[in-house]
Amino acid sequence: MIVEMAKNASREQVDHVVERAEFLGFEVQLNFGTEKTVVAILGSETGKTSTDIFAVLPGVESVSRVMKPYKLASREFNPRSTVVNVRGVEIGGPRVVVIAGPCAVENEQRLMDTASAVKACGAAVVRGGAFKPRTSPFSFQGLEKDALKMLSRVRTKLGIPVVTEVVDIENILIVAKHADILQVGARNMQNFALLKELSKLNHPILLKRGLSATVTEWLTAADYLLAEGNNQVILCERGIRTFEDSVRFSMDLSSIGVIKRFSHLPVIVDPSHAAGHSAFVPSLAKAAVAAGADGLLIEVHPNPEEALVDGLQSLNFPTFEKLMAELKPIAEAVGRSI
Amino acid sequence: MIVEMAKNASREQVDHVVERAEFLGFEVQLNFGTEKTVVAILGSETGKTSTDIFAVLPGVESVSRVMKPYKLASREFNPRSTVVNVRGVEIGGPRVVVIAGPCAVENEQRLMDTASAVKACGAAVVRGGAFKPRTSPFSFQGLEKDALKMLSRVRTKLGIPVVTEVVDIENILIVAKHADILQVGARNMQNFALLKELSKLNHPILLKRGLSATVTEWLTAADYLLAEGNNQVILCERGIRTFEDSVRFSMDLSSIGVIKRFSHLPVIVDPSHAAGHSAFVPSLAKAAVAAGADGLLIEVHPNPEEALVDGLQSLNFPTFEKLMAELKPIAEAVGRSI
Amino acid sequence: MIVEMAKNASREQVDHVVERAEFLGFEVQLNFGTEKTVVAILGSETGKTSTDIFAVLPGVESVSRVMKPYKLASREFNPRSTVVNVRGVEIGGPRVVVIAGPCAVENEQRLMDTASAVKACGAAVVRGGAFKPRTSPFSFQGLEKDALKMLSRVRTKLGIPVVTEVVDIENILIVAKHADILQVGARNMQNFALLKELSKLNHPILLKRGLSATVTEWLTAADYLLAEGNNQVILCERGIRTFEDSVRFSMDLSSIGVIKRFSHLPVIVDPSHAAGHSAFVPSLAKAAVAAGADGLLIEVHPNPEEALVDGLQSLNFPTFEKLMAELKPIAEAVGRSI
Amino acid sequence: MIVEMAKNASREQVDHVVERAEFLGFEVQLNFGTEKTVVAILGSETGKTSTDIFAVLPGVESVSRVMKPYKLASREFNPRSTVVNVRGVEIGGPRVVVIAGPCAVENEQRLMDTASAVKACGAAVVRGGAFKPRTSPFSFQGLEKDALKMLSRVRTKLGIPVVTEVVDIENILIVAKHADILQVGARNMQNFALLKELSKLNHPILLKRGLSATVTEWLTAADYLLAEGNNQVILCERGIRTFEDSVRFSMDLSSIGVIKRFSHLPVIVDPSHAAGHSAFVPSLAKAAVAAGADGLLIEVHPNPEEALVDGLQSLNFPTFEKLMAELKPIAEAVGRSI
């Protein structure tokens, strides 16, 4: 941590900063410039310490970090890339893993049809929402536990892993029983009470990026999941909130390169929620694979016109099939398969 | 809802939109322009309906709302401004209600000292965090239930209402037992599972604005709280996430005017979390009162240097006292007291 | 344009809106809902009219557009995709056009070396800054007219077109004399005085997206360039300003799909300025090609360590050569060449 | 500047950073932590130097600033607050200066009526647009030089200073002849060619904040104006671009406190362009005065329904008069007059 003293800071104020840092067990080095004094506070634990502890002291102008605030998710902590194994499907390995299915589970037949269709096209995992966190209380909220059972039967019949969202602590165990990957939604990325409970599980977790979370905050949230030893964490970029209004969220594909540099965790991309419109999904899906994403999360519905949730952003079977065919040469162009 | 058809949309496509709307029970009026056909879908329930239901149909170019997606929180639904009564303290009435106290409860003596001090300066409610949702798992997470008991004893001794945050469903009842107002934090504004449970209570709720929530989304989240009949909802503006980096969050004071126009709910302002630095709190607090806020939520600590959480943004007793003295003439200038 | 009247609007207020619209020559259709009256104002010229003209009238709740505010840049106006021919290099055709070179021209030898190197790797156009709009007045401002002459000599020697930025009206003609494409920088996207002058030229213009411009505003700025008949406009996505701080700007690749749907103009991508760091450029460049971009604008410097401007985001010759090799199969995967 | 070396950086890489810094004339201090080496580069000129110069060197993880990138606009450079004297009206002194008038000059009679009305209510300066930078080329672009002459005659008749926008270098002298303050619009805040020319003048300049400019970038743009000795610079906050869609721009009143702390320049606030709707202007105007703004810039029109530009955000005479009466006690509450 680097503490910049104000131009007119007194020697006593500098000493006060030094004492505080040494009290906390850090090394300190002083840099006396002609205009300002700079105090370097060093040690591997400084990343875990709030900069406020020093910023609040008299005579301090500003404090900046040297160590990142996340640790367990960092590549410095674990230089080898993590591969999450979901019943034999490896996320973070050479294969680009496509997860596809309906936004919400609507009934068993439709789920089965969709799961079969996406599997036939090359999807490796099936998605389907059981608990639906909706912006409005008047919207369809999901079939909840009934949907979990449908997902469970589909995975048994088709032999394909399934992912679904968990929205509260109370339902963690039942979701974990029926699903292979537990998804934490964007709006819950900093629901720390939920993250702490999930951290105790030994189950793959898909952590969606919060809609206004920086990559640093996202990786720090991942630290919550990793804190109790669960290391099966998959990140999912799904677009961020910006001023742009032609799409629902602005897909931030630069996060792929940033995560690959600073973290060991695999990262997949959800083009459906970012675009908010099926017309823009294929372009973003292709871009994500070219950018180096480890997988995709794509909404598919047999008849988007009839979908109860997010039909506008869902691909139908023919467009999904076409997209999968188009993705294959791109995956190969970046040295991967699909 | 206004459905704009594409320039080359066929008559069959227009009819399809009309049928869908009529099937849902809406009135429809067709507008045939020289370039485009526009379908107006009318009725008081259209606000509750997703625009996607029409946007997904073939030949549709775009869909825009006429009715707002929130209903119960709207001034159209309830033209009279709501006043929330918290043990005799009215929020939304002529008095500007100042809520003050430490970010986190650290120990009982310090809480009592702070509560006494802020009460003596004119604060009407005491705040204190028991469960602390922290960005990093390595940060202090609050004294939890012990803190609730301390808050409870302070309110009994001083006869002043208290507010504290609730972070999960499991602890709703115990928080409701010890606190007069339950706060939903910014990161939980769209934790719909939590909101649904709180809606069943008969207890004032302070709903902080999500850090990237539009005012419309915020009022739609308030609809979740209001849906089961609890009408004691107080909104709290606390700054939004933007590109500006000289403060922690950009205080959006235009939300005060917007809410007063479109909603009947009272709205207070938290300058401490927005600023992130005590030096900027007084300026924002004064601005909030002048803008028409119904109250303020201010962090105060006997010794910010020693605070376990957010010391940098906390006022000490003398600066809080000075601010309260400065706020009084501003409140009077806008026809209120403090 | 759709004018939504307030719930309690009088018949006189509705009539007033109708009169105003008819006075402006528009068709009007009235929709009387049970709760609200909606006035549809139709006609191909409504897109050019400010919504404020109606929003300001008494009894009006809100006004929304049906027609987009841009016209000449729209695909409705010109359904066939525009191909800009720059001395034989087609931008917007099947070839993905790579434009490469130094951020700023530093001296003739270095420019010539760089131009030769990027041409050898497959770049079709050379870039080089002569006038440099810098955030700080203390930074290097470019070699100005000397740089223009160097660019001119390089294009003659190597037979390759060049692009450089024009920053004021005064220098338009001299820039047009020495360069094949005139670039309008992001900070000048809404410098309308400059756009109006450029509109009178018969010269390809590269219009960078403003750092906080929506796609709609960007296309409306393009309308300024197209207004006098110059139809040789190339758009350039270069990242938008968001809260994310791990890169300089957040690359918005969803704009590619949006532009391809709503506009006929070609669009290229500048990954260098978005990333701000050479480590992230290859990932974004590949993503852009996969997303359907018509070209790339990449900064290359023989020795980024020594660059006077933006060295951090410049590729050196070996990394550029490697990137070009990696881009080829991606271009082929999307049915194009490079 | 603080250079953080990567964990595995070699001693040679550290030495390379040191040599580069010493070559540029800076002092260097090395801090060897157990995990990382940190190089402190000190000296008053480091603020003017790009961080990229060091970030690009091998073995460097990141570089952060200690000195701010602006110098002349900083309070460190000039501890005394600047007061700009505009023909006897002091901006930055005890009086809150209200500048009011129409968005665009439409005709002389209407301008004179408006100027007289706002002067009678206490406005100290009259505004009126001559050159109008409009988002769409199809919108009214202003009366240009005719409007300048009208402004000139109004100031002579009423004895009140006037402000108008300058949009290009070509017209600087004529605008300076007819107006007392030259306004640089938000979209030109980083039109550095224009700023450089204005810097040569001895004339007050009103520098509006760019719509996505940080306060730091804004003050750095002010450095361009101050670089040639012109010290009559007034800043104007006018809202920033965010995701919020209920107002045109999000007014960032935290900038007032930040500027007062870090800069000596006066700062005024334009609530009209931020709100985009007259209903929200009074609340924001009052908040701005309470926050400590040195003045206001408010759009007033005799009949907003008839305004050619931005009628929706203009106050009419009675609402402006009412607002001025409401502002007076707020100004007094913060120890100022109006």
CATH superfamily of the largest domain in chain A: Aldolase class I
In percent terms, what proportion of residues of chain A is strand? Answer: 15-25%
Question: In angstroms, what is the radius of gyration of chain A?
Answer: 23 Å
CATH architecture of the largest domain in chain A: Alpha-Beta Barrel
The arrangement of helices and strands of chain A along the chain is EHEEHEEEEHEHEHEHEHEHEHHEH
Total beta strand runs of chain A? 14
The oligomerization state is: homotetramer
Q: What is the largest interface, and how many residues per chain?
A: A-B, 48 and 48 residues
Number of helices of chain A: 11
CATH domain topology of the largest domain in chain A: TIM Barrel
Report low-confidence residues of chain A grouped into runs of 5 or more: none
- Shape, per Cα inertia axes of chain A: elongated
Structural class of chain A: alpha/beta
Q: What features would you describe in this structure?
A:
The structure is a homotetramer of 338-residue chains. Chain A has 338 residues and is α/β, with parallel strands linked by helices. Chain A has 2 domains: 2-64, 2-Layer Sandwich (Alpha-Beta Plaits), CATH 3.30.70.1140; 84-333, TIM Barrel (Alpha-Beta Barrel), CATH 3.20.20.70. The first copy, chain A, is 33% helix and 18% strand. Chain A has helices at residues 11-23, 52-55, 108-120, 145-158, 172-178, 192-199, 215-226, 254-262, 271-275, 281-291, 317-333, and strands spanning 2-5, 27-32, 37-42, 60-64, 84-86, 89-91, 97-101, 125-127, 162-165, 181-184, 205-208, 233-237, 267-269, 295-299. In chain A, strands 13-12-11-10-9-8-7-14 form an 8-stranded parallel β-sheet. Chain A starts with a strand and ends in a 5-residue tail after the last helix. The interface between A and B is large, with 48 and 48 residues.
